[in-house]
Design goal:
five-stranded parallel β-sheet; FAD/NAD(P)-binding domain; binds flavin-adenine dinucleotide; alpha/beta
Length: 302
């Protein structure tokens, strides 16, 4: 049995492991997709204290190296539920393996919000993407759109402007909401067009690949067809905490409600990082949560 099982190998989960290991606890980190989590989608992180600039991938890799060096066990699997047996928690995975731990730290982060349009799921990987860093190169020289107007959308658009023939930003609100610095930089790009007050109504495809969008101009209700072979969706993130709701309270948006030391209402179960209710979702706050959750778990084990 592990002292700590950590669900999610993002900044929060790997930091929790680091603090557990440094305190002599055995730790297993279970990750379903990519060690490093969401930050691996960021080409440039410039707001992590003590580091002028780094790529999200670099940060994820360094954190993984650090916990492996300290003796972490890691597992690629999707956790489907936790069974509370008092001093022992059973962690179930989609793959069928069940892991035993004295404490469980949930650090499952958030996932990309969808537009909710027919055909969207089928076109993911066939025109629709959530990550310009990961997939931008597939659209070299092509016409692409970016849905959203916040920092993630603008960062995606910046990156794509250097790869694609044209980039059209589609924002359903009347104005962009991302940092002014990014807006200014984009306004200087000749191949970037910004459309505000527009909603994507329909996805068009041929031979199972995206060919364009029908967009609705909210001001006058008119619709038009916008040809494009790529659509990068950056309209926010949603938590995936439904499977843990028996152990922890979720707020209306589905985020786990914990105390300031990341304790849930179930003894021995903690929640850290973007998956919990909080105001600021950043690497700095995720790693802080990971440290707090691990220290709370260690204290409760004594
Ligand atoms: C494009 C982009 C750019 C960003 N830029 C910055 C920036 O410049 N600076 C900054 O501070 N922050 C930035 N962020 C935000 C930052 O990445 C997050 O705040 C941070 O990654 C949160 O860490 P986390 O560990 O809580 O969650 P996540 O990073 O989301 O990690 C959670 C992990 O849990 C895994 N997981 C989820 N459910 C399960 C399950 N059931 N079983 C197993 N594994 C599971 C997921 O696969 C994921 O790897 C950016 C985010 C994005 C998307």
């Amino acid at each position: 049995m592990y002292d700590m099982i950590i669900v999610g190998g993002g900044p929060a989960g790997m930091t929790a492991a680091l603090y557990g290991l440094r305190n002599g606890k055995s730790c297993l980190v279970i990750e379903k997709a990519t060690f490093g989590g969401q930050i691996t989608h960021s080409p440039r992180v410039e707001n992590y204290p003590g580091t002028l600039q780094m790529s999200g991938n670099e940060f994820g890799e360094k954190l993984l190296d650090q916990i492996l060096h300290q003796g972490a066990d890691i597992e690629m699997a999707t956790v489907t539920g936790i069974r509370d047996q008092g001093d022992m928690k059973l962690v179930d995975t989609e793959e069928g393996t069940v892991f035993e731990g004295r404490a469980v730290i949930l650090a499952t982060g958030v996932e990309h919000r969808r537009l909710g349009l027919p055909g969207e799921e089928e076109l993911i990987g066939a025109g629709i993407s959530f990550c310009a860093t990961c997939d931008g190169d597939f659209f070299a020289g092509q016409d692409v759109c970016v849905a959203g107007g916040g920092n993630s959308a603008l960062q995606n658009a910046m990156l794509l402007s250097g790869i694609c023939r044209s980039v059209t930003i589609l924002q359903d609100l009347p104005r962009l909401t991302g940092e002014q610095r990014l807006q200014d930089a984009l306004s200087e790009k000749a191949n970037v067009k910004i459309l505000t007050g527009v909603a994507i109504e329909k996805l068009h495809s041929e031979n199972d690949s995206l060919t364009g969008l029908t967009i609705c101009h909210k001001e006058n209700g008119s619709s038009s067809f916008l040809p494009c072979t790529g659509l990068f969706i950056a309209i926010g993130m949603v938590p995936q905490n439904g499977v843990f709701k028996g152990l922890t309270d979720l707020d209306q948006a589905g985020y786990m409600d914990v105390d300031e030391n990341c304790r849930t209402r179930t003894r021995g179960v903690y929640a850290a990082g973007d998956c919990r209710k909080k105001h600021v979702r950043q690497v700095a706050t995720a790693v802080a949560d990971g440290a707090c959750a691990a220290m709370a778990a260690i204290e409760d084990m004594q």
